[in-house]
Design brief:
- The structure is a single chain.
- The protein is globular, with a radius of gyration of 26 Å.
- It starts with a helix and ends with a strand.
- With 746 residues, the protein is an all-alpha fold.
- 51% of the residues lie in helices and 2% in strands.
- A hairpin with a 5-residue loop joins strand 1 and strand 2.
- The protein has a 5-stranded mixed β-sheet with strand order 4-3-5-7-6, sandwiched between helices.
């Protein structure tokens, strides 16, 4: 107890110290990477931005995180992050940057929190290195520059970690319960992904706290119960509310939050069985992977300044989206193939793995000489915490069937912590000539440089040979010189060690800047010289609107006359005047599969305009620009209907919600597969005067087939001349082969 009290006193004393001046440039770097030019992203991820627009309009929409202002269907995630985004939009006005701002600040906050967490035990230089490594981990700013959830999730988990460490130091249950309650809050951000850190929390508390086993079990049991209560609190309220008094729970098949949490956003991520039809039948994983390019193609049109040709980009993207077994080694969504070395494969390694070899050497050094039965030092206990965070998450991403590259931000804190703590520990062992452990520093530098050369080699056409050769040569030279000078103690050796760290962080720093340099992707963020494609393909030339994403593809109601000869071609499919085709071998004729959801019954997702002359980047992966002629027609002919129009999925609905703030019905939810609507329900809505216009594309019917068939059989087709745009500068997006229908029932 005396030891604990002295630690608390030491902490209070340290808080009175002046600001660490070395930390200031690190925070400024993080601020630059997370904030610079976010104001150019006009709509961010349009699916989530549309929800914020809707949530601003009523508390009902706000509480349930409704996708549309009419409260028809929710988004596919719990609401906490979107509550924060909505508050930000309320304060600063509704803009792309105002919904991105909370995540950008969370990214900066994570850097500061990691500094605080590492500094106290491992020293100030360890804290500085850890903070810098966190700031320069490429996927961290890439995600933080969007309105996706993961940056806020990681920040919340780091807050919980700070509370846990304080609970162990003070032996107070209040901090312990607060830490686990914070994980419950994180659950209401991204559901089961928040629980990835639980092994670390349990192991650390058991090992580090100096209380009886009886108290440990009691405290852990109580804290876990509190965590579960906080986790399911919103779900219980929603699921216990009558379905006719709230929106349908988007991307669930039973209109249940708990089903969404443990199915679509839970176990299915591990198994990969995330493709379902409207009837709830799962599709084979192979089918999903063959057809999953739908969501990826949503994102292929972010603006980017690059010298690569459009044909190069399409060729590379086509190769990468082949199904496993078809010669592609990058897996679905460029996440590699499951296996023990998956994190070293292209597509994942350049997002998170730049320092992994150094981390492995650091782990060896930090745990060298540790006995299983203890006693353990504070450094060893906290090292065990970071290891218990790192390993389970790394294992998950090594075997998971379905995830996106940006989920890897979950690995950033433990990797950065070990990089900082390990740099100081290995340097100390090296300077003290501590036997075989003194070789860990040059060994870590050499193997890390070698991995970085391997990571960069596929991008030689984008970045050139010089940086690859430079990192490789400098890494080898510095490692060898440090090995030779192992017995010497002078300032030159210190400079060599510092130079080695600069070399190892140089290319991660460049990669972290690629979303700024080349243009990011707000729906499937990643960081690399080809980041604007959202698939790890070559960057878009962005020289004009035709050369971005799907050449010549148009949004709802636009003429398809501008399609290029190869516009809109799907990998394994074919092009027919801009009409999207299914990948060859698909079992669902005319039906596009959305990952994690199911068939995309509408058109393929539109992409945002990426004209190089535009000051605003519309890179949300959905059609940000509406067809003004269609909007004018619908507005003029609205006779009091609740919904401006209805369409099959959120892709077509989102931009009109963002533009007008009016209700637009996504009949099948995000991907068009949610079993929300029946023919009888639709008839009742039409008779009540809630909706009369329906925009349907030429794509498949999926789970809404009965509804769509009924609409076509009982409506009149509106001549395209009344609403279809023929402008030569029509926006990017689907083929424009959809049809507008009108139904009025008496």
């Amino acid at each position: 107890m005396k030891h604990m009290n002295s630690e608390v006193k030491e902490e209070r004393t340290s808080n009175k110290n002046r600001i660490d001046l070395f930390l200031v440039p690190i925070v400024l770097i993080a601020a630059f990477l997370n904030l610079f030019k976010i104001w150019t992203d006009e709509y961010a991820n349009a699916y989530y931005t549309a929800a914020v627009k809707s949530m601003l309009q009523s508390f009902h929409n706000f509480f349930y995180a409704s996708f549309d202002p009419g409260g028809y269907v929710t988004i596919d995630k719990p609401p906490v992050v979107f509550w924060i985004q909505t508050i930000s939009a309320k304060i600063f006005g509704f803009h792309g940057w105002s919904v991105i701002l909370p995540q950008a600040l969370a990214g900066i906050g994570s850097v500061l929190l990691l500094y605080v967490l590492v500094k106290r035990t491992f020293g100030v230089w360890a804290g500085r290195f850890a903070a810098l490594a966190m700031a320069l981990t490429p996927i961290v700013p890439a995600v933080s520059r969007t309105n996706n959830i993961d940056s806020m999730l990681v920040f919340t988990l780091l807050v919980a970690t700070w509370m846990l460490f304080r609970a162990v130091r003070t032996a107070k249950f209040g901090w312990m319960s607060a830490a686990f309650a914070m994980i419950g809050v994180a659950f209401n951000m991204k559901m089961l992904q928040a629980y990835m850190v639980l092994p670390a929390f349990y192991v650390f508390y058991v090992v580090a706290t100096k209380i009886t086993w009886k108290k440990k079990i009691a405290f852990l049991t109580t804290a876990t119960a509190l965590m579960l209560a906080v986790s399911v609190s919103w779900a219980v309220v929603v699921d216990s509310t009558s379905a006719d008094k709230r929106p349908y729970m988007g991307s669930s098949q039973t209109n249940s939050v708990l089903e969404l949490a443990f199915g679509y956003n839970g176990i299915n991520r591990l198994t990969g069985n995330t493709s379902v039809t409207g009837s709830g039948h799962k599709q084979p994983a192979q089918t999903e992977q063959q057809t999953a390019s739908s969501e990826t193609k949503q994102t292929s049109n972010s603006s980017a300044d690059s010298s690569q040709s459009s044909n190069q980009r399409k060729s590379s993207s086509s190769q990468k989206m082949q199904a496993p077994g078809g010669g592609n080694q990058n897996g679905m969504f460029n996440t590699g193939n499951p296996g023990p070395f998956r994190l070293f494969q292209k597509g994942l390694s350049d997002q998170i793995s730049w320092l992994l070899p150094f981390v492995i050497f650091s782990i060896v050094g930090l745990f060298a000489g540790v006995k299983f039965k203890g006693p353990y030092t504070t450094k060893q206990k906290e090292s065990l915490f970071w290891l218990a965070w790192l390993l389970p998450v790394a294992v998950f991403f090594s075997i998971a069937g379905f995830f996106h590259q940006y989920y890897l931000i979950m690995l950033a804190p433990p990797i950065a912590a070990f990089a900082g703590a390990g740099a100081v520990a290995l340097w100390s062992m090296y300077k003290q000539h501590n036997g075989w452990k003194s070789w860990l520093l040059p060994g870590g530098i050499l193997t890390t440089a070698a991995l970085q050369v391997y990571i960069m080699s596929p991008y030689v056409s984008s970045i050139g040979v010089a940086p690859i050769a430079g990192v490789g040569a400098l890494g080898v030279i510095l490692a060898l010189v440090l090995a030779v000078r192992k017995q010497r103690k002078n300032s030159l050796t210190n400079y060599l060690g510092a130079a080695a760290m600069v070399v190892l962080l140089a290319m991660p720093a460049y990669w972290a800047m690629t979303p700024i340099i080349y243009g990011g992707n707000s729906m499937l963020p990643s960081a690399d010289p080809d980041s604007s494609s959202g698939m790890g393909g070559p960057p878009s030339t962005a020289t004009n609107s035709k050369q971005s994403g799907f050449n010549g593809m148009q949004p709802p109601g636009s003429s398809s006359g501008n399609s290029s000869s190869n516009g809109g071609q799907m990998p394994g499919g074919s092009s027919n005047n801009g009409q999207m085709q299914l990948p060859s071998g698909s079992s669902n004729s005319g039906q596009m599969q959305m990952p994690g959801g199911s068939s995309n019954n509408s058109q393929m997702p539109n992409s945002f305009s990426s004209k190089s002359s535009s000051s605003k980047r519309k890179s949300g992966g959905m059609n940000a620009e509406v067809n003004q002629k269609l909007l004018n027609y619908l507005t003029k002919n609205n006779t009091g209907e609740k919904y401006l129009f209805a369409t099959t999925d959120s892709t077509s609905a989102a931009p009109y919600i963002i533009k007008t703030g009016k209700p637009v019905m996504a009949m099948g939810g995000f991907s068009g597969s949610d079993p929300i609507l029946t023919v009888s329900k639709l008839k009742a809505m039409i008779k009540k005067g809630e909706v009369k216009y329906f925009y349907l594309s030429g794509m498949g019917k999926g789970g809404q087939s009965d509804v769509i068939t009924w609409i076509k059989d009982n409506s009149k087709e509106i001549p395209s001349s009344k609403w279809q745009s023929t402008s030569s500068s029509a926006q990017q997006g689907p083929s424009g082969n959809g049809t507008l229908y009108e139904i009025t029932l008496k």
